[in-house]
Amino acid sequence: MLSMALTIAFALVAAAFVMSLFRLLKGPSAPDRILALDTLYINAIALLVLLGIHLASPLYFEAALLIALMGFVGTVALAKFLLRGDIIE
What we know:
By secondary structure, the protein is mostly helical. It has 3 helices and no strands.
């Protein structure tokens, strides 16, 4: 039962990953692209967590935590750049 749920979850998260990648490449404006990038790293975290559950390895959870940290910092930096035009004051 768990393997079927993991397979469905992998398929749905992979579809969301592809859709957000499409929005990142085609996005009509910079804020749309930043939002797509934010969604893309969240989907990457979800894929890593699902892979960690599937393989029963805690290494993937640590990688997901690092990607979450870098994604948050990147999103804040890009948003600050859009608002002010400068990242470091």
